[in-house]
Amino acid sequence: MGYAALAVREDARTPYRSDAAVDDPDACGDRPAEGGGPDGSAHPTAGEPWIRDPEETEELDGIESEVALRAAHIHASMQPFLALVARFVDRRGWTRGGHRTPAHWLSYLTSFELGTCREYVRVARALEELPETAASMARGALSYSKVRAITRVARPETEADLLPLAQGTTVAVLERVVRAWKTTDRLTEAEQERVRRESRTFSIFPDGGGMDELRGRLPSDRGAVLKRAIEVASDELYRAEDRVPLSPEEKAREAAKLRADALVLVAERAMAAGFGSDDPKTLSGTRAERYQVMLHVEPETLAEDGETGMSELEDGTRVSAETARRVCCDAGVVRVTKGPEGEVLDVGRKTRTIPPALRRALEVSDRGCRFPGCGLRFTDGHHIIHWADGGETSLRNTILLCDFHHTLVHEGGWKVEWWGAKLRRAAFHDPRGHVHIARVPEPPELGEDPAGAAIAENRARGVDPDAWTAGAPWRFERDIPDEVWCRAAEAAL
Hints:
- The structure is a single chain.
- This protein folds into three domains: 2-26 and 51-183 and 462-491, no CATH class; 218-273; 287-437, no CATH class.
- Helix content is 46%, strand content 10%.
- It contains 19 helices and 13 strands.
- The longest helix is centred in the N-terminal third of the chain and has 37 residues, at 54-90.
- The radius of gyration is 29 Å and the shape is globular.
């Protein structure tokens, strides 16, 4: 058992990325001795010489202790925050505002990034089943980052064995260890795999400095395909370059740049090959281009106050009148004239309810779904006053909505209208009569010293961490006592 555990620990120390040595100087190699170089000069990795003034050293020690103390109070304050998130989500409070998911609600309410909110919600729900982990976080002994890692493998019956490992190691070590452990049986793993695939995401957004930042999550098998494609493209670019001798640090930086160029090359080759559509350059797509589903519907059915008549798919499946109105908001329409016996007298030309020029104008003005807190780029055009009710097809009467919120407006009983004579400010009315307008939620009023208030609140709850509460005595995996390691490893099986 001891040899097996030792072997796993040695393998876990292998860096997952080729540039690990650049990002983490402690990841490999010998570290310079404390106190600088052999001649007493500045530390080779430091920007300034070591400070030896006793008074300044004492001052820095005080600052360092205060930083650690406030960090522990921040960790302690996160637990009540997550408990409230879980309580709100369990009661499905997020559905009141028409949000797609609990993460969308939390992101809109708090201005946290959407991916961060997905993890907040997952961790908050997990802590409901892990009381010891929640209590450890509540007293400042576990940071959110450590709780996020341990909740991937901990169960109510095993958390007591995992907590000593989480409390004693750094976040980096804990993350590496958790990734390597098998967490559940075959059936549960299959369910977790389904959940992981449902949570896949990818986004590209400008960082404000002339660059685009990429973030995403892919199932491991899909990620392997992308990595292999980038590797192939990188090899092609590498063969085309003039190679010069480089230091290890320069090699790591150049490899990262090469991977970035390779990703662009993969995209360019994919665009050149096409995707089987007539117009692969469509930005977010209109329903007329994305779908070729035939819906047979009578004009009276599309009118808001009209009689319900024919509304069916090609195979005869009945579609509700409101669903037909939603589909026809942004679709290709062919008008068919029939005689008294049902015979076809005339078939008109296919026209788009939202023409390409108007679609481009909507893309420029709306920049995605206009529902508060959404912004999804794949959208439908929605008529404020339906064209079947006499509404005009113009920029003043149309708005972009994602499929979820377009369905909410039609079948969900919500209404949308413009507020303001000149501004395109969308106001959404829910079935309860409440109004939802796209705006950044105003932060609550805080006192002059919000951090001090959080510390006071923690102490009122009986939580009073010190500068060592959230520390990690075991910096490297080799430092973890065998007893702690083996108990944790067995608990995660």
